[in-house]
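SUBJECT: protein chain
CONTENTS: sequence, structure tokens:
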Amino acid sequence: MDPLSPEQRAWIAVSSDPMPLGSATHFAGWDALMAALPLPHRLFAGLTEPSPEDLAGASTLITWNPAYAQGSLNSGLQVILLGTSETAAVDPRVKLLRSPTRFLADLPLGDVLSALNPAPPVRTQPDQQSGQQPLSTPSVHIGHAGKKIPGAIGVDQFCLDAGDWRGDGRDLWFFQSQSVASLLLRVRSDELSHLLLRLQEATRILQPGGLLHLELPSGRQFDPSIAPRLGLQALPSKPGSLCFRKTQGRSFFVERESQQGPELSVLIVSEVHETKDLEAARLRASIESAQRGLANLPHEILILQRQVLQADLQANLRSCVAEIPQARLFEEQAPMNFGARHEYLRRRAAGQYLLILPAGDIAQPGCLANLLSAAKSKKLAAALPIVLDPRGKALTALASAGHGLLLAADAWPRGLLEDSPYRGQGLWQRFLNELESKQQSIATVPGARILSPGLAGRGLRGQAVAVSREDQALLARGRPARNNSSPENILVSLLRSMGDCILGSTVLDAIHARHPAARITLLTEERYAWLFHAHPAVAEIIAAPRSEGSGSEIFWAEDLQVAHLQEELDYEQVIILSDNLDHCPYFDCGLSFQDFYARLAGYPEAASLPLRLRLPMGSRESARERLREAGVSGDYAVLHTRAGWPERSPPGELFAELCRHLQRRGLQPVVVGGPGERIEASGVINLAGRVSPPESAGIIAEAKLFVGPDSGSLHMASACNVPSLGLYAGTGLRLVPPLASLAIAQQATSSCARPCGLSPCREGCNASGFDPSQLCRHMDALLDGRRIARDWFGERPAQLIAGPKGPVLLHSPPRHPELHPLAIPSRPGPGPGLEELPSRALLRPFPGNPSSEASRQAVEELQRARNGSPPDSPPESPLEGSALAAPARCAALHGLALASLLREDAGAALRYISLAIQSLLEIEAEHPSRTQLQTELRASLAAYTWPAALHGLFARATCSLPQARPALESS
């Protein structure tokens, strides 16, 4: 029987959306749709609008553009429009299919096929094509391409039905380890370079005894030696597929071969860098440089990755490590100080000698062997190389400390540096000073040279200078490399937003409980100092001026302020409570904000303490007086409309409708917040910008209900234990939930399922996707004294699943409870409400060096730090004579080019990227890294302004003709 009626037996026109729309708005199922259509079809790709002549004879038009749909109605076509939850209504004759979110990529392909009249049958893939062993339930089909095993959970770049996941087979974060009974993995030819990564994840989620069916492109051979190392046993299978049974319960995919104990352990710790591709390139270059320099020596390379990289960058890094048997990659995004990061690898190192090699450092030929030979022959406790910057100049002693530092294992006992007060290279300088004081032998090896990107840190020029200044202050006082266990003077820096100050205040309580005799000084912005005037743990408040500028400038202005205080005053312990990039953002490590700050401070007990809001005496009475002046006499609800950035702030129309519902419940709506906040609705009392912050806290404390986005006011309501409805978009409600005993949190459907916490979001998420009727039901539940069990996303139960960065809360209801068990983490109980205490903390302004001067001073100090004396006979090029393989050399030179751009050294950047392009020509066309390196270079050429000749150079380098090499060399 024909899938379509005779009158519908004509061709189908498909007008696909253009790829430049981005991953958020692009519908990824176009190719699968074309394959599933039962009739002849024609594709109008991108921005090409089909004309009436083009559509002559067509029966159906499937399009993404409302204008195309509206203009095609007069042709008598069946028109299907693919839209998002925000797509406006169109002509009733148009069949509008809406995604459940504001992302077109979330629209299931099955909905599109069902919209055809009549619907064609979905072409599923029969079991017999997957080998002789049948798939069982629950089963997963990865890379189904629209032809999914019946009853399986699909994973692809698009969803076939509502039970599928959009994702990449290299990172199946939405499945718990050992949770799937059987799995079908389909790998395309362009995915073969990352085959091991896909097998790693598939093996991780597969249960012991589970079945893995692997489909590879025809003509490709599978290395049978991989299966035993994966813990897989081969089973009989039919041509076209391979079948395995998982025999071991491990969740990793390569078992290292038994080998001789390493003589040297190389410790490479990556940083958290704003430019992720630059940090990934530095890391790969250091790994391959170390492997090349130690090829003939028993060694191991231990890498700590702290950056959450994009999928392709992560895949290339894992592939690089997987190809080196001696290398092991550890991924850990928990907050750790500088010393703890190296101790993380020290506890796992087995070598007799330990080499510190920061990401981006490249060992020159013979460097590592010479270091080890000198350490063994002279029985050194530490061997030092000559450290050069990218221009061939020698770095200063402090800047070079820890770059290529070789230590005898017994000179560094495990756990020695866990609580180090040093935040940078000063740790290694102080460590060497302590070795010298114990008369340990230390020597510089002239024949060992290390090329370093220069000052370490995230690509913010002031941060490295601030850390260096702080370390110098500690060194001048002879501070030991380990913190004092019984400090008398403690400095706590808490400079960020009001919400951060409230959520981080429990750390002050924990410090005071552990060290009751210690004097605690708090550095905070002057606009938030009122929160701590009456705090019993704070003896002194240093009010810093407000940090201005971009987010990155605020981060390192904070670092400079802490460094300035360290220079002027003597603190035995400094605790910096900041979600800054130096410690990894909290939304990357899967910790709640309270837990993040507790771990960062080194006082884990702070995470279990309730929030307390302590205000000076009289704050509550002053708030009542302001309410009486405004005409508020009965019960009221407080609304707050703005969050930290626009993406997190719901639209004003939403609040107007919520106010009308509150008035029907007999509550008067009161608006608090900063100047400019308002709600266009009658009967609303607007006190935003008209009352002081302590008075706002008093107004919130006596409200019957609080409604607002993730902001300081919401967390103030939690501290006062006021029933709260939190509205989330752009930030994760799992990470910063409302903590009142009666609270409901809802995330907008226009928000990413895993919010990044950044503004602007690359996916374009915002706070427009709230259903007012649903929020009104939530307000009723809170006013009636009930909280819907586990209600975080409206009326659907929460779904917490295990991911590589910790528990993740998702939008959708639990589709497969046996794979994703429900669990709500335990939270500390609510605080006692607002407390009024006498002011006791001494308040004084920040001692000079305001943040307005921080930028200028940082740039000047950075310029001075660049000036160093060149070494004897420096090489013409930092990589001249390097024995690095061409792929590693190309990646390293590209990283140096980007690093030079960050230092605004255009001449060096041009030279390095030219050398990188020449190295690209030496890479064989079949090499798996050539395509990735070529793509990265092309992106850099497009992102910055380069001479036209350089683009021609790149075009010739990417040419596969034999005559390209002499043409390139001549240019």
Summary: The chain has 27 helices and 37 strands. The longest helix spans residues 276-293.
